[in-house]
Write a structure and sequence with these properties.
This protein is of the alpha/beta class and 374 residues long. The chain contains 12 helices and 16 strands. The protein has 3 domains: 75 residues, no CATH class; 65 residues, no CATH class; 206 residues, NAD(P)-binding Rossmann-like Domain (Rossmann fold, 3-Layer(aba) Sandwich).
């Protein structure tokens, strides 16, 4: 079993009374071994009475309720997330990974052992495990998934394993959020959670990387799940088609190692920071307007956004983004910085922008760091 979900399942078995704390639930099931599609295996709703069933034969956990859903628009989709019936230390799997591994030369001329996506998916189907578990087993043997070869040297096998074992939650799947989700998926974050209640419209086409003419009027989270699956089928994707609020944010963030703010208003940002503080989760803040943007990392216990907005969640004036607009270069740049902050947090490397804010003025080529009065 994947460690995160195994821990959740065991917690529910030991403490069934905690089920009342679960705001969103669904069906966690191993993906079909013959069909790798970004289809939701479960749709989950606001509920207050939950029943859990463990199906050992099909290696799944089903959470159901007798309470009718409140709002059809507010649900979560679980995309190809499941319990693995084998540990990545399984001897047979390890042997077969070693046998099918090839070698290639990187641009520096070094010979590196690799495994292709084709072999990854084939072994996952054969052993009834997720492709992510195959990648983890390969990296344990210093065999690089070919898709991550160009991470080599910038990241060690241990670093790549750490990323694959990480669960990152991105709140917002529009301008910043779309770029963030794509960058994190390509880098190899193992579990991505995305929350956004909106659909794409034509005004998003100028800057939101997941917005295309064929995705207009589609929910942003649905589009994100399909796009991310095609980018990296070896990661798990969970989407929440909701706007965060004090009643749902704790459940959305549960189990995350890092959260990323891709929002556009102070109220939701402060709600996100408060939940991160309660659950001891670092948060990466980003904001954009015109050709300018800012980035800041907030650890539990930091004042963070309260130094920018105060404690009042009610904004007196519309955000600068509404006045200045957002050209495409700005979210692409700021999302890249936010992604790097995630890597710093997860890998414990470099210097995060903690208790300081980086302000970027792309039009004038000016980048300034502001030390916050903590």
């Amino acid at each position: 079993m994947d460690a995160i979900y195994k821990n959740e399942f065991n917690r529910f078995l030991r403490h069934p009374e905690t089920l009342q704390e679960v705001f969103y639930t669904g069906v966690f099931i191993r993906r079909d071994p013959d069909v790798f599609l970004p289809c939701p295996f479960g749709q989950v709703f606001r509920q207050s009475c939950i029943k859990m069933e463990f199906d050992a034969q099909h290696d799944s956990v089903k959470l159901s309720t007798t309470v009718a859903k409140n709002n059809p628009a507010e649900f979560t989709e679980i995309h190809h997330v499941g319990f693995d019936c084998m540990s990545r230390q399984n001897d047979v799997l390890i042997q077969e990974i070693s046998e099918c591994a090839g070698t290639t030369s990187d641009p520096a001329g070094r010979t590196i052992a690799i495994i292709s996506d084709f072999d990854t998916l084939r072994l996952a189907r054969h052993h009834n495990v997720t492709p992510r578990q195959v990648h983890l087993s390969a990296l344990d043997q210093n065999i690089w998934p070919l898709r991550y070869l160009r991470n080599f040297d910038s990241l060690t096998p241990t670093d790549q394993i750490k990323l694959l074992e990480t669960r990152a939650t991105v709140i917002g799947a529009g301008g910043l959020g779309g770029y963030l989700l794509e960058l994190l998926a390509r880098t190899g974050i193992g579990t991505l959670v995305a929350a956004d209640p909106e659909t794409f419209d034509e005004t998003n086409l100028n800057r939101q990387t997941l917005a295309r003419t064929d995705t207009v009027n589609q929910f942003k989270t649905d589009t994100a799940a399909k796009a991310l699956f095609l980018i990296n089928p070896a990661i798990d994707i969970i989407t929440h088609r909701v706007r965060i609020d004090p009643g749902n944010i704790d459940a959305i963030l549960y189990g995350s190692h890092v959260a990323v703010d891709a929002l556009d208003n102070a109220e939701d940002r402060l709600t996100l920071q408060e939940s991160c503080a309660r659950q001891n989760i670092p948060m990466v803040h980003g904001a954009i307007a015109g050709f300018e943007g800012r980035v800041m990392t907030v650890y539990p216990g930091d004042q963070g956004l309260q130094l920018l907005y105060g404690h009042n969640k009610e904004e007196e004036e519309p955000s600068a983004e509404l006045h200045l607009g957002v050209p495409a270069v700005t979210p692409a740049f700021i999302a890249s910085l936010q992604t790097m902050e995630v890597l710093k947090i997860v890998l414990n490397r470099g210097r995060p922008f903690r208790n300081q804010m980086l302000h970027a003025d792309l039009e004038n080529g000016r980048f300034e760091e502001f030390i916050l009065d903590v």
